[in-house]
Amino acid sequence: MASGSFYGGAAPYRSREGLSTRPAASSDEIQLRIDPMHADLDDEISGLRSQVKQLRNVSGSGDKTEAKFQKDFLDQLQMTVIKAQAGVKNNIRKLNQSIIKNGANHVVHVVLFALFCFFVVYMWSKVSRR
């Protein structure tokens, strides 16, 4: 095989007698040209198969790890949302109880303040016309 390259260097590549690569239309593709004059193709095909198997193992384990990480993250996020919903529901319940106990006095105070403000604006408009 070419020293230190996994078919990723400059084209054309040459691994051994019999197989060589040429650039394809897409940068992700490699086309192989097989020289039928050399009979050592079985070893080359076995080598290519082992490299493909290694690449599949690397990409497959990376996908599984990423999927597991995302699943764990989503599970944690879902638990956080459930806890937040429970907290909000509890606070709304406490607020409703507080309004029931003390709410009538607060509403009366707000209405009286609004009437007072309206009266002050009305009197100010009467005085300013003179």
Estimate percent helicity.
55-70%
Sum up the overall morphology in one term: elongated
- Please work out how many helical segments DSSP would assign: 1
Largest sheet geometry: 3 strands, antiparallel
End-to-end distance, in Å?
105 Å
- The whole-angstrom Rg is 39 Å
Strand order of the largest sheet: 1-2-3
Q: State the secondary-structure class.
A: mainly alpha
Can you offer a commentary on this structure?
There is one protein chain. With 130 residues, the chain is mainly alpha-helical. The protein contains one helix and three strands, in the order E-E-E-H. The protein has a three-stranded antiparallel β-sheet, with no helix packed on it. The radius of gyration is 39 Å and the shape is elongated. Its main location: endoplasmic reticulum. This is Bet1-like protein. One of its GO terms (biological process) is protein transport. It is a single-pass type IV membrane protein.
Break the fold down into its secondary structure elements and pairings.
Elements lengths: L13 E3 L2 E5 L6 E5 L6 H89 L1
Antiparallel strand pairs: 1-2, 2-3
